[in-house]
Amino acid sequence: MIKPLNFLVSAGPTREHIDPVRFITNASSGKMGFMVAEAALAAGHQVKIVTGPVTLEYPEKAEVIETITAMDMHAAIMTNFPECDVLVMTAAVCDYRPTKTSINKIHKSDETFILRLEKNPDILLSVRRLEKNQTIIGFAAETNDVIISARRKLEKKRMDMIVANEVGGKEYGFAVEHIKATLLFKNGENRELGRCRKKDIAEIIVKEAIKFQESSR
Ligand code: C5P
Question: Which of 24, 25, 87, 89 to mutate to test the pocket of ligand 1 (most atoms within 8 A of CB)?
Fold first, then answer.
């Protein structure tokens, strides 16, 4: 029996403000991350959740760190990563943020409005620099070339496992109870799970994370 592990789970979208009332975000609800947190707690592990803005109830026994922007989430993960055994990055981090956030509400004027964006840091690429013996699991939400793109991400971000998640349809993906998933492992193995409940995927993720930890000891 493995000792209780420290899980660090990111969840939800990030929000990148244009002005005080407008922002860029995405359709992530945070459900997947919160279910991973619940599954890890149910298996007797300790859990910290770094969440973007969500409307979900927080699991009672988890420590929850609230963030808004990708930069906030980056800082929170970097601070908490050294003490974790397992990082599960389910968050849909915005790739870009406005180069400037206006202090006041921007009033409409011209017929076109050009918004300049700059790239956010990649959290998984940043944590790899701090890594000791942690297990790193990520997600790839894709509409096309799902497996090829997910495998590319797993290799680039040097994860142990990635959950390739087909999004875009109504039956599975963001904000619903199901995802259509394939697990891709760093040893080259792919395990197709098909359409399944986020709750079931969450339990599988926790089990796989424990296996990675056991094999690294
Ligand atoms: O956005 P992308 O498809 O590249 O996300 C793949 C994985 O990388 C996800 O687990 C996501 O949480 C993570 N990610 C990250 N930092 C970003 C963007 C994504 O850690 N800036």
Answer: 89
Q: What residues are in contact with ligand 1 under a 6 Å CB criterion? A: 70, 89, 91, 93, 120, 122-124, 138-140, 153, 157
pTM above 0.90, yes or no: yes
pLDDT, tens digit (0-9, with 9 covering 90-100), for 105-126: 999 999 999 999 999 999 999 9
Is 172 among the domain residues?
yes
**Which CATH number covers residue 29?**
3.40.50.10300
* Phi/psi-derived region of residue 12, left when phi > 0, alpha when psi is between -120 and 50, beta in every other case: left
Whether 135 is covered by a domain: the verdict is yes
Number of folded domains in the chain? 1
